[in-house]
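Continuing the series of single-chain predictions for the mutant panel. This is the parent chain; the variants come on the following pages.
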Amino acid sequence: MLMTEHVRDLLVDPRRHPRGQPHLSAASALVRVQQRLYVVADDEHHLGVWDETPAAAPGGRSSAPLALVRLFEGDLPHGKGQRKAAKPDLEALTAVPPLLGCPHGALLALGSGSRPTRETAVLLALDAQGGTTGRLAYIDLAGLYAPLRAQFADLNIEGAFVASGELHLLQRGNKGDARSACVRFDWNQVVPWLTGQSLAPPRPKAVRVIELGLLGGVPLGFTDGAPLAGGGWVFSAVAEATRDSYHDGACAGSAVGVVGPDGALRQLISLQGAPKVEGIAVRVQGGELLLSMVTDADDPAIASQLLQARLTLV
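Parent structure:
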């Protein structure tokens, strides 16, 4: 079992939050760009971002409120049920290499695809320092996701990253269909579609089901992933007692793992305390993996947390 350390709560300035909330409560994906950490919350119209440079705070851990970057116009309903039905459900976030209109790269946030209203992606241009420029583009994911529905009737894309010339999307399993999978697309075919040079979305290059097993009698399912040098990747997974991608369930625990360049599962270890981890970023430090993770408590009154853990590769 892997020990985690609480680094900070994901606090925001309530005067800048559309509901006057002092925190983000449904963190769903995490990505590091230079010295910034970006987090997407599945029930917001904004990204959260903060600086983790040593100058940001003593010890390099900033406690300042996250800045909010608007992705969609308008505000979501306040009621939990109405909000759940209307939200874009952005569950995946990744940094992508330079492309047309984004000479310094971009962030790509993707809807889960678990409902027709959740099939939109947002492309955000970055500047040379890793900050957002304000330039946004919206991509309809329906065509990209259509062939995946033939294999996964309850589609739920929860992680994304670009590595080794491929876009990887992570399908999250549940009690209704326990299969979690990594879907790979040729990045050279993704780029013209993302930038509007091609109307036809690329077809999947490969789909690999990865058996994650059970935790507390509940199937583990992918919640996020991040690339490693050499072609491997790390992931977070959650055992949530629900039979579909729409309804929440009790969390039996979370785990992190490593997949090798060959696509085979190399390591899988549960996290102490059973936090519901839905986002992960990674750095290599002294031969270990420093994992940064964000949580989702499925309760608007509870702040998402940033956790940290160290994992030794075996």
